[in-house]
Write a structure and sequence with these properties.
Blueprint (H helix, E strand, L loop, with lengths): L3 E5 L4 H12 L5 E5 L4 H11 L6 E4 L2 E4 L1 H9 L3 H6 L2
Parallel strand pairs: 1-2
Antiparallel strand pairs: 1-3, 3-4
Length: 86
């Protein structure tokens, strides 16, 4: 299964929903980068994604986006194949 990395904050309901969705699809570990604890990581996220909001989800090297993007990908049937690609 592909590695999942999520830029997040400690208190973010959309981050929690994204993590729940991923776990319901078989992801056992989400590597969380807490940008509210490390401002340098916030800059890294904005440079890497071009976005300012959390969550920002990466599956392998693919930037999925935020919770709405993740949820739409799941509804379209694209999440499981992306998670299983190695």
């Amino acid at each position: 299964m592909n590695k999942v990395v999520m830029y997040s904050t400690q208190v973010c309901p959309y981050c929690q929903m994204a993590e729940r969705l991923l776990k319901s699809r078989g992801v056992d570990h989400v590597e969380k980068i807490l940008i509210d604890k490390d401002p340098a990581r916030r800059e890294e996220m904005m440079t890497r994604t071009g976005r300012r909001t959390v969550p920002q989800v990466y599956i392998g090297e693919t930037h999925v986006g935020g919770y709405d993007d993740l949820s739409a990908l799941d509804r379209a049937g694209g999440l499981l194949p992306l998670l299983q690609t190695a």
